[in-house]
Design a protein that fits this description.
Helices cover 34% and strands 29% of the residues. The protein has helices at residues 53-60, 83-93, 109-119, 124-137, 153-165, 183-200, 211-216, and strands spanning 9-22, 25-38, 42-46, 68-73, 76-77, 94-98, 171-175, 203-207, 219-224, 227-233. A hairpin with a 2-residue loop joins strand 1 (9-22) and strand 2 (25-38).
């Protein structure tokens, strides 16, 4: 397990395993995994298809439940929380960026970006101020009234990033965020995420095998067969 720095761990996995049943065969997607992610990291979990990286991200995001071991977010053991508490945790403390964007097609860019704030009950004036500021930060000023089908893939991914960071989450989990965009757009999106990490202190954890993403990461955790094969932090 990576050493914790000054008690700043956001995520802690302690001997976590996740087994899936495929017909009569048990597949161990994650195998006795222990890991710490600290506040402010810009980190990649990499590895070949089937290595367990997406499953790990889903368990950290409370979208999946381990068969054994413990997953903690900001010191809270996810296994001890009720369904309602987990839902509130995902809403308030975790931002998600998916490769398929997962935007509501009938909502505008603005409405998609402010959606979580509305669920949180943030007053309308504060919602608008925060959402418009974030849309400008992600380069979508003037496009707030467009729906997803009126936007490019890169613009849709920027809306997804805006939606993820509007609620000021503790961590943003990004699963293959550059998979459906061209290399130029990917560079632009990664630059944006890096700026948010450096200027606003947003913690990013990626699941990817994209060399462009790994080049930007300060820490690369390589998984194979559900285990950590290598864990490297680049020198400054």
């Amino acid at each position: 397990m990576e050493p914790e720095q000054n008690g700043s761990a956001i995520v802690r996995l302690d001997k976590v395993s996740r087994v899936y049943q495929q017909g009569k065969v048990e597949v161990k997607a994650v195998d006795d995994l222990s890991l710490i992610i600290n506040k402010g990291e810009f980190t990649v979990i990499s590895g070949p298809s089937g290595s367990g990286k997406t499953t790990t991200l889903n368990m950290i995001g409370a979208l999946d439940i381990p068969n054994s071991g413990a997953v903690e977010l900001e010191g809270r053991n996810l296994g001890t929380l009720s369904r309602t508490q987990l839902s509130e945790l995902r809403r308030d403390r975790i931002g998600f960026v998916f490769q398929a964007y997962n935007l509501a097609p009938v909502l505008t860019a603005y409405e998609n970006a402010e959606f979580v704030l509305a669920l949180q009950g943030v007053p309308a004036a504060r919602r608008r101020e925060r959402t418009m500021k974030v849309l400008e930060e992600v380069g979508l000023k003037g496009l707030e009234d467009r729906r997803p089908d009126e936007m490019s893939g890169g613009q849709q991914q920027r809306v997804a990033i805006a939606r993820a960071i509007c609620p000021r989450p503790a961590i943003v989990l990004a699963d293959e965020p550059t998979a459906n965009v061209d290399s130029h757009t990917a560079e632009s999106i990664l630059t944006l995420m890096q700026q948010l990490n450096q200027t606003d202190g947003v913690t990013f954890l990626f699941s990817t095998h994209d060399p462009q993403v790994m080049e930007r990461a300060r820490r690369i955790i390589t998984m194979r067969d559900g285990k950590v094969f290598d864990d490297t932090t680049k020198s400054a």
